[in-house]
Design a protein that fits this description.
This protein is 28% helix and 28% strand. A hairpin with a 2-residue loop joins strand 2 and strand 3. The longest helix is centred in the middle third of the chain and has 17 residues. The chain is globular and about 40 Å long.
Length: 188
């Protein structure tokens, strides 16, 4: 399986819209998304496209596509960006069949490098739902450090929920490829 991580093109943003609109209620609950907050598909796509014509460092968000053998398997988005300082990442494996296979770990490793490079970050945060084990284990495996668990509304699509706050610091980049690998005993 050849994994590729790259910036998502504007013509591929429909995949993000479809991911949310076609997810089951159970999956949306697991990732902390409030279906009532999802804009209609055309409006959602417009939100994602906003600023795509600007240089990357001036955008509100950057979306990175994860591919396996040329087929999309997931994506990450980065927002709440303060260039030269910090940003917040989100991670999603889109097809249920690809979850719990370790794809996320390698893709997050590569994605972290992209965000640090594009925005000259000092730190990168992630706040997955505390009850969603897979992204929490993925972040830990990649080398993110646990900061705290707290209750918040992590983004404009979410409901209030307990989240686990993780951070990855610039000085960790040198160790990124030595992150803890997934084992057969670990199904996440």
């Amino acid at each position: 399986m050849a994994l590729t991580v790259r910036e998502m093109r504007i013509d591929e943003l429909g995949m993000v819209v479809d991911y949310f609109h076609h997810s089951t209620d159970e999956h949306l609950l697991k990732i902390g998304v409030d279906r009532a907050k999802l804009p209609e598909p055309a409006a959602f796509r417009h939100i994602l496209e906003r600023g795509f014509d600007r240089p990357v460092r001036e955008r509100e968000r950057l979306v990175v596509l994860w591919e396996s053998d040329g087929d999309p398997v997931g994506y990450s988005s980065c927002d709440t960006i303060t260039v030269g300082e910090q940003a917040k990442m989100h991670l999603h494996v889109i097809a249920p069949d690809n979850r719990r296979r370790g794809i996320g770990t390698e893709c997050v490793r590569q994605t972290v490098k992209i965000y640090f490079d594009h925005f000259d970050l000092q730190r990168l945060f992630a706040e997955p739902n505390s009850y969603n084990t897979a992204p929490n284990r993925t972040l830990q495996r990649v080398g993110f450090r646990f900061v705290e668990t707290h209750v918040t509304v992590p983004s404009w699509l979410n409901f209030e929920q307990p989240v686990t706050r993780w951070v990855f610091e610039r000085e960790q980049l040198a160790d990124l490829d030595r992150a803890v690998p997934r084992t057969r005993a670990d199904p996440y």
